[in-house]
Design goal:
This protein has 310 residues and is of the alpha/beta class. It contains eight helices and 15 strands.
Amino acid sequence: MLTRGRGLALVGVVNAVRVSSGFFLAAGLATTVASQTGSNHVSNHRTGSCSSVIMSAEEAGAPSTARRVLVTGAGGRTGGIVFEKLLAKEGYATKGMVRTEKSANNLKKKCKVEVLDSNIAIADLATPGLLAAALEGMEAVVLCTSAVPKIYPFSIAKVMFKKMILRSEDPGRPKFYWCENGTPEEVDWLGAKALIDAAKAAGVKHFVYVGSMGGTQPDNFLNTIGKQEDGTGGDILLWKRKAEEYLIASGMTYTIIHPGGLLDKEGGKRQLVLDTDDKMLERKSRSIPRADVAQAVATGIDGVKTSRDR
Protein backbone atom coordinates (compact mmCIF):
# COMPACT_ATOMS: atom_id res chain seq x y z
CA MET A 1 0.00 0.00 0.00
CA LEU A 2 1.04 3.56 -0.31
CA THR A 3 1.11 6.31 2.22
CA ARG A 4 1.97 9.56 0.58
CA GLY A 5 4.41 7.89 -1.77
CA ARG A 6 5.25 4.96 0.47
CA GLY A 7 3.83 1.49 0.36
CA LEU A 8 1.94 -0.47 2.98
CA ALA A 9 2.43 -4.21 2.97
CA LEU A 10 0.96 -7.23 4.72
CA VAL A 11 2.51 -10.16 6.30
CA GLY A 12 1.11 -13.50 5.42
CA VAL A 13 -1.97 -11.57 5.94
CA VAL A 14 -4.03 -9.00 4.34
CA ASN A 15 -2.39 -5.74 3.69
CA ALA A 16 -5.67 -4.29 4.57
CA VAL A 17 -5.62 -0.68 3.80
CA ARG A 18 -8.50 1.51 4.66
CA VAL A 19 -8.03 4.97 3.28
CA SER A 20 -10.09 8.05 3.75
CA SER A 21 -7.85 10.89 2.64
CA GLY A 22 -4.61 9.35 1.62
CA PHE A 23 -3.72 7.22 4.62
CA PHE A 24 -3.10 3.49 4.19
CA LEU A 25 -3.05 0.58 6.54
CA ALA A 26 -1.80 -2.89 5.87
CA ALA A 27 -3.76 -5.72 7.36
CA GLY A 28 -2.35 -9.18 7.65
CA LEU A 29 -3.28 -12.50 9.09
CA ALA A 30 -1.00 -13.77 11.77
CA THR A 31 0.08 -17.39 11.73
CA THR A 32 -1.58 -18.13 15.06
CA VAL A 33 -5.22 -19.08 15.36
CA ALA A 34 -7.37 -16.29 16.73
CA SER A 35 -8.33 -16.90 20.33
CA GLN A 36 -11.78 -15.51 19.69
CA THR A 37 -13.44 -17.23 16.76
CA GLY A 38 -15.25 -14.88 14.46
CA SER A 39 -13.48 -11.70 15.50
CA ASN A 40 -10.56 -10.04 13.81
CA HIS A 41 -8.20 -8.04 15.99
CA VAL A 42 -6.25 -5.47 14.08
CA SER A 43 -3.40 -3.24 15.13
CA ASN A 44 -3.04 0.18 13.55
CA HIS A 45 0.61 1.10 13.03
CA ARG A 46 1.38 4.78 12.50
CA THR A 47 4.49 6.81 13.24
CA GLY A 48 5.93 4.19 15.53
CA SER A 49 2.91 3.75 17.77
CA CYS A 50 0.06 1.31 17.61
CA SER A 51 -3.41 0.97 19.04
CA SER A 52 -5.98 -1.81 19.03
CA VAL A 53 -9.18 -1.59 17.05
CA ILE A 54 -11.86 -4.19 16.32
CA MET A 55 -12.39 -4.53 12.59
CA SER A 56 -15.04 -7.23 12.27
CA ALA A 57 -17.83 -6.26 9.89
CA GLU A 58 -20.46 -7.39 12.35
CA GLU A 59 -19.15 -5.05 15.03
CA ALA A 60 -18.77 -2.20 12.56
CA GLY A 61 -22.50 -2.30 11.97
CA ALA A 62 -24.46 -2.77 8.76
CA PRO A 63 -25.58 0.26 6.78
CA SER A 64 -29.16 1.42 7.36
CA THR A 65 -29.99 1.45 3.64
CA ALA A 66 -28.91 -0.92 0.89
CA ARG A 67 -25.61 0.08 -0.65
CA ARG A 68 -25.00 -0.75 -4.29
CA VAL A 69 -21.59 -2.35 -4.77
CA LEU A 70 -19.87 -3.58 -7.93
CA VAL A 71 -17.18 -6.28 -7.61
CA THR A 72 -14.91 -6.60 -10.65
CA GLY A 73 -13.05 -9.84 -11.28
CA ALA A 74 -15.96 -11.75 -9.74
CA GLY A 75 -15.15 -14.70 -11.98
CA GLY A 76 -11.80 -15.20 -10.24
CA ARG A 77 -11.13 -17.13 -7.05
CA THR A 78 -10.70 -14.14 -4.76
CA GLY A 79 -13.21 -11.90 -6.52
CA GLY A 80 -15.79 -14.67 -6.45
CA ILE A 81 -15.49 -15.04 -2.68
CA VAL A 82 -15.67 -11.26 -2.18
CA PHE A 83 -18.78 -11.14 -4.40
CA GLU A 84 -20.46 -14.00 -2.54
CA LYS A 85 -19.73 -12.48 0.87
CA LEU A 86 -21.15 -9.08 -0.05
CA LEU A 87 -24.11 -10.66 -1.87
CA ALA A 88 -25.06 -12.55 1.30
CA LYS A 89 -24.58 -9.48 3.48
CA GLU A 90 -27.71 -7.73 4.66
CA GLY A 91 -28.03 -4.14 3.56
CA TYR A 92 -26.13 -4.55 0.29
CA ALA A 93 -27.22 -4.75 -3.33
CA THR A 94 -24.18 -6.43 -4.88
CA LYS A 95 -23.32 -6.97 -8.52
CA GLY A 96 -20.40 -9.02 -9.81
CA MET A 97 -18.67 -8.08 -13.05
CA VAL A 98 -17.37 -10.84 -15.33
CA ARG A 99 -16.10 -10.80 -18.91
CA THR A 100 -18.15 -13.57 -20.54
CA GLU A 101 -21.48 -15.39 -20.38
CA LYS A 102 -19.56 -18.55 -19.51
CA SER A 103 -17.99 -16.86 -16.49
CA ALA A 104 -21.42 -15.61 -15.44
CA ASN A 105 -22.85 -19.14 -15.51
CA ASN A 106 -19.87 -20.53 -13.60
CA LEU A 107 -20.28 -17.84 -10.95
CA LYS A 108 -23.94 -18.74 -10.47
CA LYS A 109 -23.04 -22.42 -10.05
CA LYS A 110 -20.23 -22.00 -7.52
CA CYS A 111 -21.91 -19.44 -5.24
CA LYS A 112 -23.58 -20.85 -2.13
CA VAL A 113 -26.20 -18.10 -2.22
CA GLU A 114 -28.71 -17.41 -4.97
CA VAL A 115 -27.35 -15.30 -7.81
CA LEU A 116 -29.91 -13.53 -9.99
CA ASP A 117 -29.26 -12.18 -13.47
CA SER A 118 -29.54 -8.71 -11.94
CA ASN A 119 -26.56 -9.54 -9.72
CA ILE A 120 -24.23 -9.96 -12.70
CA ALA A 121 -22.80 -7.51 -15.20
CA ILE A 122 -20.98 -8.76 -18.28
CA ALA A 123 -18.41 -6.13 -19.14
CA ASP A 124 -14.73 -5.56 -19.76
CA LEU A 125 -12.37 -2.94 -18.39
CA ALA A 126 -11.36 -2.16 -21.97
CA THR A 127 -14.94 -1.49 -23.14
CA PRO A 128 -16.02 1.97 -21.90
CA GLY A 129 -19.71 1.66 -22.81
CA LEU A 130 -20.26 -1.64 -21.01
CA LEU A 131 -18.16 -0.46 -18.07
CA ALA A 132 -20.25 2.70 -17.68
CA ALA A 133 -23.45 0.64 -17.74
CA ALA A 134 -22.13 -1.71 -15.05
CA LEU A 135 -21.23 1.25 -12.82
CA GLU A 136 -24.53 3.06 -13.16
CA GLY A 137 -25.99 3.81 -9.72
CA MET A 138 -23.12 2.16 -7.82
CA GLU A 139 -21.97 3.67 -4.52
CA ALA A 140 -18.86 1.53 -4.12
CA VAL A 141 -16.53 -0.49 -6.35
CA VAL A 142 -14.27 -3.37 -5.33
CA LEU A 143 -11.47 -4.06 -7.82
CA CYS A 144 -10.42 -7.72 -7.68
CA THR A 145 -9.23 -7.86 -11.28
CA SER A 146 -5.67 -8.98 -11.93
CA ALA A 147 -3.53 -10.24 -14.77
CA VAL A 148 -3.19 -14.03 -14.54
CA PRO A 149 -0.01 -15.69 -15.87
CA LYS A 150 -0.11 -18.92 -17.85
CA ILE A 151 2.67 -21.47 -17.56
CA TYR A 152 4.46 -23.18 -20.45
CA PRO A 153 3.94 -26.91 -19.65
CA PHE A 154 7.21 -27.90 -21.32
CA SER A 155 9.14 -25.55 -19.04
CA ILE A 156 7.98 -27.55 -16.01
CA ALA A 157 9.21 -30.79 -17.56
CA LYS A 158 12.53 -29.14 -18.37
CA VAL A 159 13.03 -27.96 -14.79
CA MET A 160 12.06 -31.36 -13.36
CA PHE A 161 14.44 -33.16 -15.74
CA LYS A 162 17.36 -30.97 -14.69
CA LYS A 163 16.52 -31.36 -11.03
CA MET A 164 15.63 -35.07 -10.82
CA ILE A 165 17.72 -36.61 -13.60
CA LEU A 166 20.71 -34.30 -14.01
CA ARG A 167 20.71 -33.39 -10.29
CA SER A 168 21.38 -29.80 -11.21
CA GLU A 169 21.85 -27.40 -8.31
CA ASP A 170 20.24 -24.67 -10.39
CA PRO A 171 17.51 -26.25 -12.54
CA GLY A 172 15.99 -22.87 -13.32
CA ARG A 173 12.34 -21.92 -13.07
CA PRO A 174 9.24 -22.60 -15.15
CA LYS A 175 8.44 -19.98 -17.78
CA PHE A 176 5.20 -18.01 -17.95
CA TYR A 177 3.33 -15.99 -20.52
CA TRP A 178 0.26 -13.75 -20.62
CA CYS A 179 -2.84 -14.14 -22.74
CA GLU A 180 -3.49 -11.61 -25.49
CA ASN A 181 -4.52 -8.26 -23.97
CA GLY A 182 -3.87 -9.77 -20.55
CA THR A 183 -0.45 -8.43 -19.54
CA PRO A 184 0.03 -6.64 -16.20
CA GLU A 185 0.40 -3.33 -18.00
CA GLU A 186 -2.89 -3.83 -19.84
CA VAL A 187 -4.89 -5.26 -16.92
CA ASP A 188 -3.34 -3.98 -13.69
CA TRP A 189 -2.48 -0.51 -14.95
CA LEU A 190 -4.53 0.50 -18.00
CA GLY A 191 -7.56 -1.58 -16.99
CA ALA A 192 -7.49 -0.34 -13.40
CA LYS A 193 -7.02 3.24 -14.60
CA ALA A 194 -10.05 2.91 -16.88
CA LEU A 195 -12.13 1.59 -13.98
CA ILE A 196 -11.02 4.40 -11.66
CA ASP A 197 -11.87 7.02 -14.29
CA ALA A 198 -15.24 5.42 -15.05
CA ALA A 199 -16.08 5.06 -11.34
CA LYS A 200 -15.30 8.71 -10.71
CA ALA A 201 -17.40 9.77 -13.70
CA ALA A 202 -20.28 7.62 -12.43
CA GLY A 203 -20.21 9.29 -9.02
CA VAL A 204 -18.92 6.27 -7.09
CA LYS A 205 -18.20 7.35 -3.52
CA HIS A 206 -15.84 4.58 -2.35
CA PHE A 207 -13.24 2.59 -4.28
CA VAL A 208 -11.71 -0.56 -2.78
CA TYR A 209 -8.53 -1.84 -4.46
CA VAL A 210 -7.39 -5.40 -3.72
CA GLY A 211 -3.72 -5.48 -4.65
CA SER A 212 -0.75 -7.45 -3.36
CA MET A 213 2.19 -7.27 -0.99
CA GLY A 214 5.55 -6.41 -2.50
CA GLY A 215 4.74 -3.11 -4.20
CA THR A 216 7.72 -1.45 -2.51
CA GLN A 217 10.13 -4.05 -3.94
CA PRO A 218 11.05 -3.51 -7.61
CA ASP A 219 13.18 -6.67 -7.47
CA ASN A 220 10.36 -8.85 -6.06
CA PHE A 221 10.24 -12.25 -7.78
CA LEU A 222 6.64 -11.70 -8.90
CA ASN A 223 7.84 -8.91 -11.17
CA THR A 224 9.88 -11.43 -13.19
CA ILE A 225 6.89 -13.66 -14.01
CA GLY A 226 6.07 -13.50 -17.70
CA LYS A 227 8.79 -10.94 -18.42
CA GLN A 228 10.27 -11.28 -21.90
CA GLU A 229 13.90 -10.87 -22.90
CA ASP A 230 13.18 -7.33 -24.11
CA GLY A 231 11.88 -6.42 -20.63
CA THR A 232 8.19 -6.29 -21.54
CA GLY A 233 5.36 -8.38 -20.13
CA GLY A 234 6.24 -8.48 -16.43
CA ASP A 235 6.43 -6.10 -13.45
CA ILE A 236 2.95 -6.95 -12.18
CA LEU A 237 3.54 -5.41 -8.73
CA LEU A 238 4.94 -2.21 -10.21
CA TRP A 239 1.92 -1.79 -12.49
CA LYS A 240 -0.42 -2.43 -9.56
CA ARG A 241 1.40 0.20 -7.53
CA LYS A 242 1.11 2.70 -10.35
CA ALA A 243 -2.66 2.13 -10.38
CA GLU A 244 -2.78 2.61 -6.61
CA GLU A 245 -1.01 5.93 -6.91
CA TYR A 246 -3.48 6.96 -9.60
CA LEU A 247 -6.37 6.03 -7.30
CA ILE A 248 -4.87 8.04 -4.45
CA ALA A 249 -4.68 11.10 -6.67
CA SER A 250 -8.24 10.63 -7.97
CA GLY A 251 -9.93 12.40 -5.09
CA MET A 252 -12.24 9.47 -4.33
CA THR A 253 -12.44 7.86 -0.90
CA TYR A 254 -10.44 4.66 -1.23
CA THR A 255 -9.40 1.52 0.58
CA ILE A 256 -6.32 -0.41 -0.54
CA ILE A 257 -5.82 -4.00 0.61
CA HIS A 258 -2.51 -5.82 0.16
CA PRO A 259 -2.92 -9.56 0.82
CA GLY A 260 0.00 -11.91 1.22
CA GLY A 261 0.05 -15.30 -0.50
CA LEU A 262 -3.56 -16.32 -1.08
CA LEU A 263 -4.79 -19.60 0.40
CA ASP A 264 -7.87 -21.65 -0.45
CA LYS A 265 -8.59 -22.29 3.23
CA GLU A 266 -11.39 -21.53 5.67
CA GLY A 267 -11.45 -17.95 6.90
CA GLY A 268 -12.06 -16.51 10.36
CA LYS A 269 -9.42 -18.66 12.06
CA ARG A 270 -6.55 -16.20 12.32
CA GLN A 271 -5.88 -12.77 13.73
CA LEU A 272 -5.42 -9.78 11.47
CA VAL A 273 -2.19 -7.82 11.83
CA LEU A 274 -1.51 -4.36 10.42
CA ASP A 275 1.80 -2.98 9.20
CA THR A 276 3.22 -0.74 6.50
CA ASP A 277 5.91 -0.55 3.83
CA ASP A 278 6.02 -4.31 3.23
CA LYS A 279 7.56 -4.98 6.64
CA MET A 280 5.45 -8.12 6.80
CA LEU A 281 7.52 -9.66 4.05
CA GLU A 282 10.22 -10.12 6.68
CA ARG A 283 7.97 -12.54 8.56
CA LYS A 284 8.19 -16.29 8.13
CA SER A 285 4.49 -16.69 7.33
CA ARG A 286 3.13 -14.40 4.65
CA SER A 287 -0.12 -16.01 3.51
CA ILE A 288 -3.82 -15.41 4.07
CA PRO A 289 -7.04 -17.26 3.20
CA ARG A 290 -9.03 -15.63 0.42
CA ALA A 291 -12.05 -15.69 2.73
CA ASP A 292 -10.22 -13.40 5.15
CA VAL A 293 -9.41 -11.03 2.32
CA ALA A 294 -13.14 -10.95 1.57
CA GLN A 295 -13.81 -10.13 5.23
CA ALA A 296 -11.32 -7.28 5.09
CA VAL A 297 -13.12 -5.93 2.03
CA ALA A 298 -16.50 -6.16 3.77
CA THR A 299 -15.06 -4.38 6.79
CA GLY A 300 -13.70 -1.58 4.63
CA ILE A 301 -17.01 -1.16 2.82
CA ASP A 302 -18.82 -1.04 6.16
CA GLY A 303 -17.09 2.23 6.79
CA VAL A 304 -14.45 1.71 9.47
CA LYS A 305 -12.98 5.17 9.98
CA THR A 306 -9.24 5.42 9.52
CA SER A 307 -7.59 8.58 8.26
CA ARG A 308 -4.30 10.37 8.50
CA ASP A 309 -5.96 13.04 10.66
CA ARG A 310 -7.12 10.59 13.28
